[in-house]
Structures are given as structure tokens and as C-alpha cells.
């Protein structure tokens, strides 16, 4: 690397004035009117009614809540009625005449999971009692393996995630 102090200034050439350059093009003024051009504006061109394409979209309803609409390509009324103001129909709602007035409530039931966990705990206690009273070494090892299996299964099933996954809603 070379220090900046060692650079010679002879290598630099001064720039010439823009008007004095040999090959610089001259800017010419436009001929004719000197008034500004009219600004270009976008123009609205109404489109003809399209064929239904089978798409879904959300629009605010009469009360302001979002509603899902569906452009059904199989609907004959839209094809026959070309002068209809709205090209789509609202998506079919849930069955039942009074669903909007009364909210639907669901109840979660974890009784089956609770019974299953209770049975596993009872089985674990029974195996531990058998292990405490067993004197044969091979039977003790067998009981210890079964206790380990039952305790692993109990550890997996006695969790909130397992309860949520196996909840029955009605």
C-alpha cells in the first residue's frame, strides 16, 4: 500500500467548464408553444360482467360484521340474469333458522381420560404391592418392567395436552 501523502498531484487533470468541452451537446429549447402540457389522468372504464369464477371473498355485511361471499360458476340465475347488480351470492350459512339469535355452546368432557388415568394408577399400585411381597428374583424383574411400562404410560397420559387431545365435545 502506498500512503496518500506520496501521491503526486500531477496525475490529476482539472475538469473543463461544461460549455468549453469539445464534444458536449447543447440543450435545445422545444419549438412551438411554451405552455405546459395537460397532466395525464387515469380514466375509469367500466367492465362488462364476468363469468363466475368460483372464488371466495370477504366483505362487510349490513351490520358491519365480515361475511364470506362465493362466486358460484354453477349457478344458473347469475348467467341468465345479466342485469343483476351484484354478481355474487352470499355463502350458505349454517343450517337452522335461529342460529344467529342463539349462540351455540359446547361442553368438553374428559371423563373417559380421567377413568383411564385412574385405572393406570390403580394398576401401578397393585403392581407395587405385588413387587413388595414377591421373593422370586425373576418375577421381581418382570414386575419391575411392567411397573416401568405402566408408569411411562401414566406419565404420557396424565398431561393437559393428552386431556385436550382426547376431550369429547357435545
Estimated structural class:
alpha+beta
> How many strands?
5
Percentage beta strand: 5-15%
How many helices? The count is 4
Helix-strand string? EEHEEHHHE
Distance between the termini: 81 Å
Based on CA inertia axes, which overall geometry fits? elongated
The pLDDT mean sits at 77
Largest sheet: 3 strands, antiparallel
**Strand order, sheet with most strands:** 1-2-3
Helix content: 25-40%
Low-confidence stretches: none
Rg (CA only):
42 Å
Please explain how this structure is put together:
It is a single chain. The chain is α+β, with helices and mostly antiparallel strands and 170 residues long. Among the domains are: 56-90, no CATH class; 108-169. It is built from 4 helices and 5 strands; from the N terminus they run ββαββαααβ. The strands form 2 sheets. Strands 1-2-3 form a 3-stranded antiparallel beta sheet, with no helix packed on it. It has a two-stranded antiparallel ribbon with strand order 4-5. The longest helix has 23 residues, at 111-133.
Question: How do you describe this structure in short?
Answer:
The chain is an alpha+beta fold. The chain is built from 4 helices and 5 strands.
What layout of secondary structure does this protein have?
Layout: E1 56-60, E2 66-70, H1 76-80, E3 89-90, E4 108-109, H2 111-133, H3 137-157, H4 160-165, E5 168-169
Antiparallel strand pairs: 1-2, 2-3, 4-5
Helix pairs in contact: 2-3
Amino acid at each position: 500500500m502506498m500512503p496518500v501523502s506520496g501521491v503526486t498531484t500531477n496525475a490529476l487533470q482539472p475538469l473543463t467548464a461544461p460549455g468549453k468541452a469539445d464534444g458536449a451537446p447543447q440543450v435545445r429549447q422545444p419549438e412551438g408553444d411554451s405552455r405546459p402540457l395537460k397532466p395525464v389522468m387515469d380514466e375509469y372504464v367500466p367492465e362488462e360482467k364476468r363469468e363466475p369464477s368460483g372464488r371466495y371473498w370477504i366483505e362487510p355485511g349490513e351490520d358491519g360484521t365480515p361475511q364470506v361471499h362465493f362466486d358460484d360458476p354453477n349457478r344458473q340465475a347469475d348467467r341468465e340474469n345479466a342485469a343483476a347488480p351484484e354478481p355474487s351470492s352470499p355463502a350458505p350459512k349454517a343450517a337452522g333458522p335461529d342460529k344467529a339469535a342463539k349462540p351455540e355452546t359446547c361442553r368438553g368432557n374428559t371423563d373417559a381420560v380421567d377413568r383411564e388415568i385412574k385405572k393406570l394408577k390403580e394398576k401401578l399400585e397393585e403392581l407395587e404391592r405385588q413387587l413388595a411381597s414377591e421373593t422370586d428374583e425373576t418375577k421381581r424383574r418382570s414386575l419391575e418392567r411392567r411397573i416401568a411400562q405402566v408408569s411411562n404410560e401414566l406419565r404420557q397420559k396424565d398431561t393437559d395436552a393428552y386431556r385436550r387431545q382426547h376431550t369429547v365435545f357435545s
